[in-house]
Amino acid sequence: MIKVEKLYVRLGGSEILKGIDANFSHKHIMLGPNGSGKTTLFRAMAGLIPYEGCIEIDGHPLEKLRGAVGLLATNITEIYHLAPVKALDLLHLFSDITGSNTEDTLKLLEDLGVKRDLLAKRKLWELSAGTKKAFTTALALSSGSRHVILDEPFEQLDPAKKVRFYPTFSYSPRVEDKAIWQGASSYQPR
């Protein structure tokens, strides 16, 4: 379970999150309009930005869990900008760190139309937005982590990839016992 209590986040002098309290266990979907703080909440939960308040993962304060392997994975791209290496090398590095199976991740990416030879040629930031989203989401899902935070996993995917990716979220053993939060913007008609 991930527990958030009295969470405040200030960025650039603006208060983005104000006193958020939440408990996340199992699968959740978070909906809200653009700019409502979904990604900011996810970034705080992943320890990527400063915050005030309390974030606990499985009863342990987030600040004491730095470097813990197998506890939390995310598709937030900034996590994966560790080294200026080709995407395939990055996949191998994260597989080594997390103990995940590289071939399983590559199979998921192949199912989405992302070819191994493309990953061998380009760095993460050289991939198209949709391919980058598929890559980081596949890494997070394949990590074997107990909790997975997915920030808008279908954003920037072309329609064919969305259709192929959907079963991964609905029926796959990759997500059966994980807590997954999908941040998605809701349409706000004028």
Brief summary:
This protein is an alpha/beta fold and 190 residues long.
Describe this entry's structure for a reader.
This protein is an alpha/beta fold and 190 residues long. It has one domain (2-185): Rossmann fold (3-Layer(aba) Sandwich). Helices cover 33% and strands 26% of the residues. Strand 7, helix 6 (159-170) and strand 8 form a beta-alpha-beta unit. Helix 3 (102-111) packs antiparallel against helix 5 (129-142). Mean pLDDT is 85; it is low at 186-190. It comes from Korarchaeum cryptofilum (strain OPF8). Residues 26-154 form the ABC transporter domain. One of its GO terms (molecular function) is ATP binding.
Strand content: 25-35%
The H-and-E topology, N to C, reads as EEEHEEEHHHHEHE
CATH class: Alpha Beta
Number of helices: 6
**Structural class from helices and strands?**
alpha/beta
**CATH homology superfamily name:** P-loop containing nucleotide triphosphate hydrolases
User: Percent of residues in helical segments?
Assistant: 25-40%
Shape: globular
What is the C-alpha radius of gyration, as a whole number of Å? Answer: 16 Å
* Biggest sheet architecture: 4 strands, antiparallel
Report the CATH architecture.
3-Layer(aba) Sandwich
Poorly predicted sequence stretches spanning 5 or more consecutive residues: 186-190
* Named CATH topology: Rossmann fold
Topology, number of strands: 8
Overall number of structural domains: 1
In the sheet with the most strands, the strands line up as 2-1-4-5
Q: Would you tell me the overall average pLDDT? A: 85
